Structures are given as C-alpha cells and as structure tokens.
Amino acid sequence: MKKIKTLASLSKIIKQAKKRNNIIVFTNGCFDLFHYGHLVSLRKAKKYGDILIVGVNSDSSVKKLKGKNRPVFSQKERVSIICSLEFVDYCVIFKEETPEKIIKFLKPDIIIKGSDYKEEQVVGYDFVKRYGGKVVLLPLVKGFSTTEIIKKIKNENLKDN
C-alpha cells in the first residue's frame, strides 16, 4: 500500500508539506475492530488540515494495551482498512504503547483525539503546545466502542448456547 509509511519516508513528505504551508494532522489508535465511530472521527479529523496521518498500534502494542485476546484483526488488516479511506493520507505503524516518538518526529500542527480524553491527557499535548500546535478533542459517536461491541457479541453468543 502506498499510504503505509515509515517515519523516514514521512520525514520527506512532511518537509515538503510544511514548505507549502500545509497543515499536518495526526491521530492514532488501535482500530482493533473498525466501526462507524472510527469512520466518523477520521473523516472529521481530515477537515482540520491538509494532510492526515494516522498512527496505528502494532499487534504487540494492542496486546499490551488491551489484553491477550486482542487485537481482533492483525495490524496488516487494520492498516489496510485505514488506508482504504480516501481522506486518510498516510498511515504509520508503531510498536510502542503511545505515539509519543512519532509525534516528536513529525511535529504535527494538530493532534486529534476523542473527547474521552482531557487535552492535558493526550500524548504529545505539552510538546505540540510548545511550538504552537494544538490538540483537538472530537465528540465520540454514541453507541460505538470496540470494547462494547465485543461485549455485545460475547453476550449474544452466551444466549445462543
């Protein structure tokens, strides 16, 4: 996929984009079970800038964050879904539990997260504020949470047995 990039290849892209005064937007997530809430959030994120870069947690990172039975889908599958969205410009996979390294490397103009966070809790908040960047919190789409969807599926399976 042409949209999947390493930090090194993103560096060149970002340099060129900044020369053109493009606004770089960054968001990240596990996207373990891609759902409508993810779709809406990513579409809204793109509206804040010219280039949308999405950090996707690696399989090992998701396992550390969410538990031994996760991820539901492999990083290859998750990144393929994210990259298929026309409004996503680039994806980068990260192995760490947070995207701090990516944020410090890319220096995005805007970091987007869901409103389940407070601004100060967002990884990279202090860093982007120092150079004039900002954090934008998007409202969550009610009724869509990977954890809740998994619970619902498990409950349905219990009813069937």
Binned, the helix content reads 40-55%
- CATH class annotation: Alpha Beta
| Largest sheet: number of strands, sense, barrel closure | 5 strands, parallel
Distance between the termini: 41 Å
Low-confidence blocks of residues: none
The proportion of strand residues reads: 15-25%
Q: What is the overall pLDDT average?
A: 91
Task: Specify the CATH homologous superfamily.
Answer: HUPs
Query: How would you classify the helix and strand content by structural class?
Result: alpha/beta
Radius of gyration: 16 Å
Shape: globular
Overall tally of structural domains: 1
Compressed to H and E, one letter per element, the order equals HEHEHHEHEHEH
Strand order of the largest sheet: 3-2-1-4-5
Q: Quickly give the CATH architecture.
A: 3-Layer(aba) Sandwich
Number of helices: 7
Strand element count: 5
Kindly identify the CATH topology: Rossmann fold
Structural write-up:
With 161 residues, the chain is an alpha/beta fold. The protein has one domain (7-160): HUPs (Rossmann fold, 3-Layer(aba) Sandwich). It has seven helices and five strands, in the order αβαβααβαβαβα. Strands 3-2-1-4-5 form a five-stranded parallel sheet. The longest helix has 15 residues, at 146-160. The radius of gyration is 16 Å and the shape is globular.
